[in-house]
Automatic annotation (TrEMBL):
Signal peptide: none annotated. It comes from Calderihabitans maritimus. GO terms for cellular component: plasma membrane. Residues 4-250 form the ABC transporter domain. It comes from the Bacteria. This is ABC transporter. Gene3D superfamilies: P-loop containing nucleotide triphosphate hydrolases. GO terms for molecular function: ATP binding; ATP hydrolysis activity; transmembrane transporter activity. Keywords: ATP-binding, Nucleotide-binding.
Length: 265
């Protein structure tokens, strides 16, 4: 199945600011895609359109077989259960222990009864599952600590655990390693990669750290001023071009052509 398909996707914010301009792309299930671009390029706008938080101004967007412009509220709720979003600001609940943060965030799909039950009784398999995910991220010793007793990097790992415990089909990770130390960044990216390779989860991850994008992603989408200016494998683009402030000069404009570059990285 195709995870994400955009046709002439455009988002214009009030005031006439372009979030995205005429974007065409197709992402198959099971891909791990890095989204690059300078501040204001449109990366978050793309994520917000994909999770239905924003409506396109024009164009079409299909997510996991659903056309977003035709989706009912119920179907959107259902779709969101298959999506997990990891934000740069980890959005954990400060006063709650880590274990509840992880379990309760599972796609927002818990009913009130389930939420109440969690507070009174944690099943053994739930505890084990949370422990395993936290161990993978290196914070299993924090399982019963309040989230606000954790460092920023540890809280970010809680947010990652919360996103992946629900076994999503599609993960949207919006700058998940923006404000963490290099060791944490590696743990987060390794966890996403494992999710992708072991469960076939489609991962879209926006990054400012180009070295991480080149290392972990099999495909890169590069945005500039709302336009998709490169869509291809990491080998098709010169790393040096990605380090420039303004990506407009990126030479590989063969969108979807997967062309090879004159100079490989
Ligand atoms: N709510 C909004 N109202 C008006 N303009 C907006 C809004 N949100 C984003 N924009 C504009 O849309 C463009 C794309 O913003 P977006 O947040 O998608 O960029 P980004 O690539 O995620 O940037 P960053 O790397 O800084 O997070 C920018 O010019 C931004 O100012």
């Amino acid at each position: 199945m195709i995870a994400v398909e955009a046709r002439n996707l455009t988002k214009i914010y009030p005031g006439g600011v372009y979030g995205l301009r005429d974007v065409n792309l197709k992402i198959e299930e099971g891909e791990m895609v890095g989204i690059l671009g300078p501040s204001g390029a449109g990366k978050t706008t793309l994520f917000r359109l994909i999770n239905g938080a924003l409506h396109p101004t024009s164009g079409r967007l299909k997510i996991l077989g659903r056309t977003m412009s035709e989706i009912s509220l119920n179907a959107l709720r259902e779709l969101r259960r298959k999506l997990a979003v990891i934000y740069q600001q980890h959005n954990v609940v400060p006063s709650l222990p880590v274990v509840y943060n992880v379990l309760m965030g599972s796609g927002g799909s818990l009913s009130l009864a389930q939420t109440v039950r969690l507070f009174f009784y944690l099943r053994k398999e739930e505890r084990e599952e949370v422990f395993a995910v936290l161990r993978e991220l290196g914070i299993e010793d924090k399982m019963y600590s309040r989230a606000d007793e954790l460092s920023g990097g540890q809280q970010q790992r809680v947010a990652v655990a919360r996103a992946i415990i629900s076994k999503p089909q599609l993960v949207l990770a919006d700058e998940p390693i923006a404000s963490v130390d290099p060791g944490t960044a590696i743990k987060v990216m390794e966890t996403l990669r494992r999710l992708n390779s072991e469960r076939g989860t489609t991962i879209l991850v926006s990054l400012h750290q180009i070295d991480f994008a080149l290392r972990y992603c099999s495909r890169l989408l590069v945005f500039s001023h709302g336009r998709l200016i490169y869509d291809g494998d990491p080998g098709g683009i010169r790393a040096i071009d990605l380090y420039q402030e303004d990506f407009d000069h990126v030479r590989c404009k063969g969108i979807g052509a997967q062309q090879s570059a004159e100079t490989k990285i």
